Structures are given as structure tokens and as C-alpha cells.
Amino acid sequence: MSARVPIGRRIEWLAAEHPDRVAVHAIGVRAPEDVTWRELDGRANHCAAVLSEGGLPDDPTVVVCLPNGLDHVVATLAAWKLGATVVPLDTRLPPDEAGRLTAAIGPARFVGDPAHTPPCPVVRPVEWAQGWRAAAPPPAGAVPRSATATGGTTGSPRIILRRRGWLFDERDPVSARDRALGLDTGQVQLVTTPLFHSGFGALYQGLAFGHTVVLTPRFMPSLVADAIERYRVNVLRLVPTMMKMLLLPGVGLGAKDLSSVRALHHGTAPCPDGVKRAWLDLLGPERVFESYSSLEQLGFVSIRGDEWLAHPGSVGRPEPGAVVVVDDDGAQAGPGVVGRLFFRSPDGRGPQYLVAGERLATWRDGYFSVGDLGSLDADGYLYVRGRAQEVINVGGTNVYPAEIESVLLSAPSVADACVVPQPHDLLGSVPHALVVPAEGFSVAVLDSYCRDRLSLHKVPVSYEAVAALPRTGTGKLRRTTA
């Protein structure tokens, strides 16, 4: 069995093996910039030297608060060359929130805008600029790692460590599970999701695999559609709102050559049935992969498009790990019964934290829940219904907003939608729909559309047209402000 090497060493090997091959195409609002493997490695070496000025502890932490772009890539690789734990932060966080997170992390290097006023040394991209050097400073000896910051459901800071360090098999970095998800070495990958969330793992795993990465500063439908064809993209990750926006007539995705795409990965939120089927038709079912997980990485569930067609609405079966559905009495629920989902990781361990916040609910030995609801069918396929705190009790019957939103989002006249509870004198609460209209929108037509597809108690009692919905950069709804 060959050794596992840090990602920094993989990048050095790729730079030596393919020095003049493009590693990153940075495209977007400005002129495209292409960076070769040799240039990328040298820039990261120089940045590592800047980060290490003044000395670093044996197990350093580097907070990277930069937008999608080459600076983010260089800073992250530089930190890993030093054996650091990288914590990416959203650049749109209010300064006070960014300050609280970095204060909770403790001693660290902060890479980004000093306006965030973090309580630690700040390094700005201008300090390493276009510098290049052949070799990186000696690493601190620690395994390169990463962690994800979240406020959690109570708002208390949590910094969740990625379970595995950024180590890869030096001969064949792609695992059997990766290959089952359409990944391989030397592919072209499009990254348009945020680098403080799902884009982070996709991009840096891709670089370790030797992918040529096409990186956009943010999601722009026409730019993404053009890039897939122009760069002959093999792999991309989208969230459902992006998938729906790419299908809008003005984008012209249907006229593009999509034959290069080998794997579309989507997740983070439920995908409307109509949107999912449209992409299955565009790419072919065997090229569309849906995944379900949590920041705590308790388990991983995925399903390929052809398997989804046999189990529509499912997110697949857990692999690795295990999942159980627990009812209100704390007992394991049977097939088809909706309850709280509890996951057990393959090693039976709970989440690993750089900074711990609120405790997760537990069930028996080694099962943890992040609060999601769902059910399992007789074959073990998982169906996710939403979060426990989002359930609307309509006259004693539980209604799941995610189910209604899936129908609303499948309507051609709806660009975006959210369902929230509305007080009702008789029933206690009823569903109320907030809708971002698209061409041809009509409340009467939309209500009829819902009545044809939902049970009567699930049909929204009222509809409200809004200009936009409060979504995070990852595509998730901020329901508390909706």
C-alpha cells in the first residue's frame, strides 16, 4: 500500500509533472486569468513564507476570509504547506460576527480584509501579491486540516473539524467511492459554489486529483452555461436554486454542448421534482448525483440519477455510516414513518470540533441528530422531510414546508419560494407561501397547480409575491427572516 501524502506535496508533484499545464482558470467579471501548476505552487510557497513570518505554533490555525478567486486558492494551499488547519469564512459576515468567530478560534493568522477587525494578526493578499519562490518553508509537522464555521441553531459559534486530514494516496488519490460518484484524476471541474461552504471541498479535492479548476467569483447563470461548453467541463456542483436558474429560457443551457459533463453533484437543499427530472433528461440519469450530509459529517448518503428514478424523492442509502428514524417516544420507527433522523458515523465517534457550541441530540450508542426529519422505506432508502423546528402543525396534522416548496418551485411561473406558518383561529397554523414570481405568474393559476399536486391541508392558504428571499451564499433559506 502506498503512502498518504499531504496535499501540499501533491501540488508540488503536479507542478513538477505538469509545470506548464493550467491548474486554475479564474473567470468572471474581470479578464480571465490562467495559472499553471508551476505558478500556483510557487505562489503558494511565497504566501506560506509570508504567513510564517514571526513564527507559528506547532499546530497553527489560519482563517481565510476571501471571496472565490485565486487569492483564496493560494492562501489555503500556503496554509496547508505549513501544516495548518484552515477555517474559511464568508466575506459577507458582519465584522462583529467575524470577530466573534475568530475570537472563539483563538490564536490564528487571519487572511483577509482588516476591516473585519479580528483579534489576531492579519495578512492581506497585497502582502504576497504575485510573489513566487521555488520552495516552501518547512512545515510545522502537523497534518493539514480544515474546519467549517457555523452559528448553529442557537447562534453560539461552532467550528467543526473535517474528520480526515488533507492527505492523499501518492499513487492514486481517487478512492473507489469517489469513482462511483463520477470523479477521476485529470478532469476539468467547474466551481461556482462558495469557497466557505461546499465549493471548498470540491475545489481542493479536485486540485489534489490533478483537476483543472474553472473558478467563478459567484454564480452567474449565463457565465456558468458558457463555461461548461467552452472549457469542456467534466464535473460541477450546484445547489437546487442554481439548477433551476440555469434552466430559465434566457440562459440557453439547452443549446449548449453538455456532452463533456460526467458528473453533476447537487445537495444542501431539497431539489424540486421537475428540476431534477429536467437535469436527468439533459445529462442522462447516470451523470447526476444527489448527496445528503451535514457539517458534522456523521454520515454520507448519495444516490445516482437512475437509482433515483426507481426511488423518486429519496437521497439514497447511507454509505458509509448508518441512519435510524426515531419517533416522538424515542423508539425506532418502522418503514414509511416520519421521525427524527439519527446518524452513526463508521467509527462510532461524534462530531469533532475546533470550537464546540450546543450539543447535538443523541440516541443510544453513537447516534447523533442535527434535527432533520425523514423516513426510511423497506429497502433502506432515506427520504428527508426538513427540520423539526420547521414543521407546521395544521389542526393536529404535521405539514412539512419542504414538500410544499418542492411543488411551488416546480411551477414554471415561480423563480423561488418559501413556506412559513401563519396563525389560524381554528387550525392553529396554516401554510403561507412567499413566492418570487417568474414570467406568467398568477396566484390563481399557482393555487390550482398546488391543488392538483398536494393534499388539501398542505395547499398554501395564502400567497405573497416578494422580490427576493433571504438565502445564504450556499442556497439555504434564512427562515427566521423570511
UniProtKB/TrEMBL annotation:
Task: Identify this protein by name.
Answer: Class I adenylate-forming enzyme family protein
Source species: Actinophytocola glycyrrhizae
- The record places domain AMP-dependent synthetase/ligase at 12-346
Q: Low complexity bias located where?
A: 142-151
Stretches for region Disordered: 135-154
Q: Which domain of life is it from?
A: Bacteria
Source taxonomy: Bacteria, Bacillati, Actinomycetota, Actinomycetes, Pseudonocardiales
Tell me which residues make up the AMP-binding enzyme C-terminal domain: 403-476
Family annotation (InterPro entries): AMP-bd_C (IPR025110), AMP-bd_C_sf (IPR045851), AMP-dep_synth/lig_dom (IPR000873), ANL_N_sf (IPR042099), ATP-dep_AMP-bd_enzyme (IPR050237)
Matching Pfam families, A to Z?
AMP-binding, AMP-binding_C
